[in-house]
Amino acid sequence: MRKLLAGALALVMIAALCGYGFWTQQRPEGHYLSDLRVELALNHGVPGERGNLLGVEPLLYPNDYQNLQHLHRKLSAYLQQARAQGLVGPRTVVVLPEHIGTWLWARGEKNELYQVTHSREAEQWLELSNPLRYGLAMLRASGDDRRADAHLRMKAQQMASDYQQLFGGLAKEFGVTLVAGSIVLPAPYVEKGVLHAGSGPLFNSSMVFASDGSLLGQPQRQQYPDSEVRRYIHHGRHFPLQVLQTPAGRLGVLIGSDSWYPENQRQLEQQQVQLIANPVFLSGKGSWEAPWRGNRHQDAAAELALQRGEVSEQTAWQRLTQAAGNGVSSMSVFMRGQFWEQASDGQGFAHQAGELLAGPPSPGARLLNVWL
User: Fold this and answer.
1) Distance (Å, whole) CA 257 – CA 66
2) Whole-angstrom Cα distance, residue 125 to residue 127?
3) What is the C-alpha radius of gyration for the chain, rounded to an integer number of angstroms?
C-alpha cells in the first residue's frame, strides 16, 4: 500500500512539474491599444546645412514592451510625425531617454506581468515564468541587490539583441543618427558590429546607431550611477568618454546625472565635441518641481555648485547641465509614462550658444528640436 501511495504521489508531482513547465512556456498576448500622439514642445532656430538635434520624449507603459512590434510602432509613429513636420533628415541626431532599452527585460512575458499594479508583483511573475533562467542568474549575480541584478542578467542576451534590432532598425528606417537612450547590461561590448552582453558587472550604457543601422563606437557607460540604482549598477569611470563623428558633428553622450559633472564636460571638450546628448530618467511623479535630490553617494557631487535641497530638480538639471563650450549644443531628454507604481517626470531642454532652451511643460509625449 505504501509503495502504491508513493508511486501515485510521484506521478502527481511529475504531472505538476510537467504542467508548470508547460505553463512557463505559454506567452499569450492581450489586446494592445496605445496613444501615438506627440506634441512639438520646442522648435528653435531655422533649418540649415548642419542639421538638427531632435529629442523624443515617449510616453511608455509596460504593455509597450510586450513585444518589439508594439514598441517599434509607437516610436516609429513619433518619428513619422517629426518627419511630416520637416524635422528628420540625413543630418538629424535623434536622442531618446535613459533606460528606454532597460525595460526590454519585460519583453515576451505573460499577460499578468503587464496587468499588475506594483513592480514587486511584476518581478514575481518574471521569476515564476522563468524559473531556470532566474535561478542561474542568481548564481552569477553580484552587487548589494542580487535580485535586481538577476532580473536584468537573466535576459541580457535577449535584451542586447532586441535593443540592436529595434533601434538600429529605426535609425536605418528614418536615415538618422540615433542615440538609443540607455540599457543596463552585464559588461556590454561590440564585436564585429554586434552588441553582446558579457558576464561581468552591470553597467548602464548607451549606444549610438548610424543612419545605415550600424553601431558607432563601443557602449558608453554611465560614469556616476544615480543613488537609486548604485546597489546593482557599477560605475563606468574605467571606460573613458568617447566622441563619435556624425553627419551633424562630433557627438558625445552623457547618461543621466553624468551631465552635472564639469570633469565629464572637460573630457568631451578636449576631444572637440560639438554635440552632447543627455538621456535622462527622473523617477517620481511631481519630482520635477520637488527639491533637488542630488547624488550624495558620489564623492564628486560634493564639488558641484549646488547643494541637495537648495533648488528644485528642474533648476538643478538646467543649471548643472551646461554645454561644454560656446560652440557646443546639448539636449537633455526625459522618459515619460509609468511602469507599475513607478512614474517618471521631467521636461526636456537644450543649451545652445550659452542659452537655455525649454518649451512649455506638457504631460504627454513630446518632441524637442534645435537646428544647429
Assistant:
1) 29
2) 5
3) 22
Look at residue 146 in the predicted model and tell me its pLDDT.
92
The cell numbers describing 354, all together, are 550659452
261-265: average pLDDT: 93
- From the options 3.40.190.10, 3.40.50.150, 3.10.20.600, 3.60.110.10, give the CATH code of 36-103+165-371: 3.60.110.10
Rounded mean pLDDT of 235-253? 96
What is the rounded distance in angstroms from the CA atom of residue 211 to the CA atom of residue 364? 27
Label residue 294 left, alpha or beta by phi (over 0 means left) and psi (-120 to 50 means alpha): left
**pLDDT digit string, tens, across residues 299-353:** 888 889 898 889 999 999 999 997 666 789 999 999 999 999 999 999 999 999 8
Reported pTM: 0.91
- pLDDT reported for residue 305: 87
In 154-215, where does DSSP find H-type helix?
156-174
Q: How far apart are CA 123 and CA 225, in angstroms?
A: 22
User: Do you know the residue count of the chain?
Assistant: 372
pLDDT of residue 227: 76
- How far is CA 33 from its chain centroid? 22
d(CA 218, CA 340): 32
Percentage of the chain exceeding pLDDT 90: 80
Q: Which of 88, 263, 80, 231 is nearest to 146 (CA)?
A: 231
| Structure confidence at residue 7 (pLDDT) | 56
Q: What is the DSSP letter of 204?
A: E
Q: What's the rounded mean pLDDT across residues 130-152?
A: 91
Which one, of 250, 319, 244, 317, lies nearest residue 278 by Cα?
317
Distance CA 124, CA 115 (A): 13
Q: What is the pLDDT of residue 17?
A: 47
* Farthest-apart Cα atoms in the chain, separation: 88
Of the chain, the end-to-end C-alpha distance in Å amounts to 85
Provide the residue ranges of all domains of the chain, joining segments of one domain with +: 36-103+165-371
Residue located via cell numbers 515576451: 108
Question: What are the DSSP E strand ranges found in the chain?
Answer: 39-44, 52-57, 59-60, 92-95, 177-179, 183-186, 189-191, 194-196, 202-209, 215-221, 243-246, 249-253, 275-280, 282-283, 329-334, 336-339, 342-345, 349-352, 355-357, 366-371
Residue 9 C-alpha cell reads as 504521489
